[in-house]
Amino acid sequence: MASAPVRALSSQSSRLSSRPVSDPEDRLAFFSCQQCMQSIRIHPSFYTMNEHTLAELTLPPVNPMPQFDFERARREADEAGHEIHGLAPPLRLAESHTHGFTFVDEQGDNVSLSRKMRETALLFDMLSESGEVDHPLCEECADNLLESMDQKLRVAEEEAQEYKAYLEKLESETEDDNHIQSLEKELETLENKEKTLREELKTLSEKTTKAEGDLEREMKAKKVIVEQEQKYWKEYSKFNREMLLNEDESKTVDCRLKYTESQLEKLKRLNIYNATFEIWYTDHFGTINGLRLGRSPSKPVDWNEINGAWGHTALLLWCLAKAIQMEPFQRYQLVPFGNFSYLKQLSDEKTLPLYGAGGFRMIFDSKFDHAMVAFLDCLQQFGDEVEKRGFHLPYEMERGKIKDNNTNNWYPIKLQFNSEDSWTKALRYMLTNLKWGLAFVCTKQGLPQDLSKNNSS
Fold it and tell me: Taking every annotated instance into account, which residue ranges of this chain make up the domain Atg6/beclin coiled-coil (predicted)?
């Protein structure tokens, strides 16, 4: 709060006018407003103050403003290496003449400071030091300052009244011992509770630390388990793949086994002799495995086919004799050798070829005829053997001839001095006897028989 002298001087400051200087008597030095910087004219009352007013104004303020040591602040800034901008000390009007400050009238003539001017400047300096605002002020700025100070004063008085009312309320209240004791008990309870909570917090902190350690160990164990799990899944995938491959292989083996068993059953039901030696006829030719045995003037047969048919015939008789385990043939040894099969005469080891080449040479070559007669003799020995076992061949054979039961005619097996038709018919009857012998062997061995192609003589 401003002191009385300052407030009185502020009132005097409000008398300063900013109107221009026109009167000759007013041609005195003038100041500038420290707020709006307008030129102001000093009221004449400032020059007529008595000694008591000046003495009162020179008294120190009740709450003087602390003086700011600008030199100390500048030294500290220089020592710290900082640079201060905008730091300027307040202007003292009373000392302005030492800095070349002068008052200038309207004609621009320099006027030295008089004693009254020094006193006026000294009053303005005292007023500026005692408050927060620099002086002098014009009338308008002084009024604004007074309004602001009045508003602050009202706010301060209201606050003072509130504090005074609250203080009176506190002083009027009487202290209750029971209430104090209850508050002390409550304080003690809260302190105990705080202590308990602090102990619990300490326990929880220890448990948290332990739990974090356990968590870290569990995370490490989890990492190991995850790695083991990945390794397990890899091994599982590998074993699963191997298992699938083994299952596929097992199924393949089962399929092969079933196929083999089915083939075995087929083979068990198969007559190997009928499958190997198929005897049938084509036109008036007897055939074995599709090869015709015989010749005809109307349908000539190549000798390679005839020789092949004789080779199959020789092999069939050799297999039948071996199947019934009969004694070796007398007088001859049968040697199956494909298109070049032959018989060997046991008495002189003479070879009798069971194949021919055709042409005129065969008319004068009797070895082929002797071989066919020898083969028919071996077949007759086989017939005699199966006859002992209760089976008879359909066509009778004797000395190189075979008998037709329907006409009782005998047909020689030789080619010389014989017609091709007779020779072909004899060969056909011979194949029929072999087919019957084949049926006998299959019956004895329990093999299924296929008699759908029996020859009807």
Answer: 136-264
